[in-house]
Amino acid sequence: MAYEKPVTSHRRKWDKDEYEKVAAERLEEEQRLLLEKDKKEPPIKRDLLKPREYKVDLDSKLGKSIVITKTTPASHQGGYYCNVCDCVVKDSINFLDHINGKKHQRNLGMSMRIERSSLEQVKRRFEINKKKVEEKKKDYDFEERMRELREEEEKQKVYRKEMRKERKRKAEGDLEQDVDPDMAAVMGFSGFGSSKK
Ligand SMILES: [Zn+2]
Predict the structure, then answer these.
(1) Ligand 1 center–CA 70 separation, angstroms
(2) pLDDT tens per residue, the chain (197 residues)?
(3) 52 CA to middle of ligand 1, Å?
(4) pTM for the full model?
(5) Per-domain residue ranges for the chain?
(6) CA–CA separation, 192 and 113 (whole Å)
(7) What separation in Å is there between the alpha carbon of 23 and the centre of ligand 1?
(8) Which residues belong to any copy of the U1-type domain (predicted)?
(9) Which residues pair with 110 in a beta bridge?
(10) CA distances, 165 to each of 1, 44, 170 (Å)
């Protein structure tokens, strides 16, 4: 009688259900840990990128000479020193690049994200710009008006002067008419006006 060895598989049998359960549990645990970590250290909240409110000094040291030794602190060495990052940048273009850059902004506590303007803000800005234009126009109108007034005054002045001259001429003319032309010639003021006619 042949002894029949029971057929045994060398392959390990996985209990599919069992392992699915374990996997699900592990996933759950991982997610729980992640949530806990989030609670413990909230993500660093950085300010949104803002426009600079100061003028960058790029040329105050232009054309000046300074002596630099091995012990000269970085802030007094040649080039552009950034006191936020404590580094020296060699030229103005790179300095501007640096202070506009991610690393510098991060050191300032700003992210590179910019604020998204709301419709309200955009409307308000439009309103402000419109007012500015109107203000300018008003200023212009005022200037124009003043100029016209001055011109008018000038014209009036000239006119009054002419009138005075005219009156004077008339008065003199009247005077001359009283003098007999022959008499006037004799008296030596023949050229007094009437002869000019
Ligand atoms: Zn910097």
Answers:
(1) 23
(2) 556 666 666 666 667 888 888 999 999 999 888 888 777 666 677 888 888 888 888 888 888 888 888 888 877 877 889 989 998 998 889 999 999 999 999 898 888 888 888 899 999 999 999 999 988 888 878 888 899 999 999 999 999 999 999 998 888 877 656 666 676 666 666 555 544 44
(3) 13
(4) 0.38
(5) 47-114, 119-180
(6) 91
(7) 48
(8) 77-111
(9) 47
(10) 161, 87, 8
- Name the maximum alpha-carbon separation found in the chain: 186
- CA-CA distances (angstroms) from residue 142 to 34, 131, 138, 155, 185? 68, 16, 6, 20, 59
Ion ligand 1 residues within 5 Å by Cβ: 82, 84-85, 104
Ligand 1 center from residue 96 Cα (angstroms): 10
Place of tokens 């949530």: 35
Concatenated DSSP letters of 47-71: EEE----S----STTTT------TT
